[in-house]
Design brief:
Blueprint (H helix, E strand, L loop, with lengths): L2 H32 L17 H22 L6 H15 L1 H4 L18 H29 L20 H20 L22 H8 L4 H17 L8 H30 L12 H8 L1 H19 L8
Length: 323
């Protein structure tokens, strides 16, 4: 089966592949729970083997495998799409760290980092693959239930449609507070920061000499990364960039949206509760409003980036060869 065949027939095999993946991942969780001293990425927070987390994961994905097989035998189950989306969410949580894998490149310009747990990283990558498979399965379930083309979601052959969106500008606006505040700190300001150290917001224990040197010259490396993220959102939103390679942009866009939206949501809620005085917890020398506004903006960036990449995906979609 060639690449073209895989792309055009995925609604037929996605459910079976997702069921097989679920059974294999559940078996791995059972093995981790029974193995002496190794969690293999299944336990949360580097807990020991045999934890409730590992057994819960095993039970969850065993049920998911049963769902996939049941759906193949009884395609009319109405609750199957909702259950499939629930499995997508579970697999996404299991593989959440994999979406931040590019951040490990920063280890090259930092120091005193914890050793890389390659077993956990590989586990998260497998879980991310499961999230992709179950997403395809859920889409196929829902589209069949609606009586539309399971491949494209349409009701007939249709050409590519040009779509415009302002999501890129929303993403830029969401990251501006972070970029401006971090740039102000690099320039010598201490607004919103009461921690110790010569460099606000920069942990010199982990930051490498190159990062500190740039910071002392007014350049925060994370601001450069934020500007790169802004550029990605604009590229995905503006029609003039529609001829750029499609698959790399889709991969970057969806990975960024999936990583930053929930991460930013946590920081937004955490910072807001601390700002309101409801939560009495430390913020690492950062004022609570900094966590809520600057770091919480990652949530809105992730959502806007997801909207931008969805628009890009639809606008660059080729004419469906199935319906």
């Amino acid at each position: 089966m060639g690449i073209t065949d895989i792309r055009t027939t995925w609604p037929a095999w996605a459910g079976r592949a997702a069921a097989v993946w679920s059974a294999a991942y559940a078996a791995g969780a059972v093995g981790a729970a029974l193995s002496p001293g190794r969690a293999y990425g299944y336990a949360l927070g580097a807990k020991a083997h045999g934890t409730a987390v590992e057994w819960t994961v095993a039970g969850l994905y065993t049920a998911a495998a049963a769902l996939g097989l049941l759906k193949l035998r009884r395609p009319g189950l109405r609750w199957a799409p909702a259950a499939a989306w629930g499995t997508v969410a579970a697999a996404f949580v299991s593989g959440f760290g994999f979406l931040f894998s590019p951040a490990h490149l920063l280890d090259l310009v930092s120091r005193n980092q914890d050793p890389m747990d390659w077993a956990a990283w590989a586990n998260q990558g497998v879980a991310t693959l499961g999230a992709v498979l179950w997403t395809g399965t859920a889409l196929a379930y829902r589209r069949r239930a609606r009586g539309v083309c399971p491949h494209c979601g349409g009701r007939g052959r249709r050409a590519r449609v040009e779509r415009r969106t302002r999501a890129g500008y929303v993403a830029v606006a969401a990251l501006l507070p972070y970029a401006l505040l971090k740039s102000a700190w690099a320039a010598g300001s201490r607004v919103g920061y009461s921690g110790s150290g010569r460099h606000p917001g920069l942990d010199e224990h982990y930051a490498g000499d190159q990062v500190i040197r740039l910071y002392e010259h007014g350049v925060d490396l994370t601001v450069v990364l934020a500007l790169t993220g802004m550029a990605l959102a604009l590229v995905l939103s503006l029609p003039r960039f529609r001829r750029l390679p499609r698959l790399p942009l889709l991969a970057l866009g969806w990975a960024g949206a999936g990583a930053f939206a929930p991460f930013g949501a946590f920081l937004l809620v955490y910072g807001s509760l601390a700002w309101a005085g409801v939560l009495d917890a430390g913020t690492g020398g950062h004022a609570p409003w900094v966590v809520a506004v600057a770091y919480g903006g990652f949530c809105f960036y992730g959502v806007a980036l997801g909207r931008a990449v969805l628009g890009f995906q639809r606008a660059t979609r080729r004419t469906c060869r199935v319906c």
